[in-house]
Amino acid sequence: RNMRLTFGIHGFLFLALALGRGAADEDSYTKCIASTGEGCNARESTFLEKMRVKSQDEIKAQKLRLRKMDKGQMKEELADWIDRRLRICKQLAPDTAQDLVSAARARHPDPFARPHAFLAAWGNIKSADRAAILLEEFHWTQYGAEFRRIDTDGDGELIYEELHSAVSEFNSDEDAIYDCFDDCQDHQEDGECGLLAYAVTRSLFSQYCEQSDSDELAELEATLLQRLDDLVASADPEEIGLEVDENGIIID
Question: In sequence order, what are the beta bridge partners of 211?
Fold first, then answer.
């Protein structure tokens, strides 16, 4: 997790890229910028040149392969190399908001086709996936535009410096900006700040990291769950994906 260093009366800080994330060497968290080659070490530069001549479909396939790799039992340096290659691929073939939302929704039962199963699963659905389910297209158009403006290197993940640079002109409260970034990291399993996690944070903060008086996602959740409860209570069991025996009794 990125941490802040507070200096002097102003409490001014820029994160020292990723303290506590287990850097394998002194440049472990220098971002490799695919568009310019800036910040890339020799190994990344070689990989970048290899991937630049690939088609978008080939890069997306490589990105999918890297995402599926289980880093749990790997040595730190191998896991770090997967992350580095994935960051390069995400810059060369960025995920769109539609890609991310569609993938998140596909991981869970359809709320209206299978409301009973959806309600049973809801408690285990992560907050970022909940945002994908609850928010509508106009939300993703807005949040996607905001995110792309902040994500200056285009790798699909925000770092503190990027958020601070985009927001500090409108909000001088360093603690508020940090809290905003920290909240975003909390909503993504790998501790990064991607678009879906950013959307959760935007339910609690303005685009300039000002604390909101309301929680739009909580309101949308309450509305959806009430609709589904009503649907389950009034619908024919078979119409909402439930199995029934010959006597019409629901089979668990």
Answer: 205
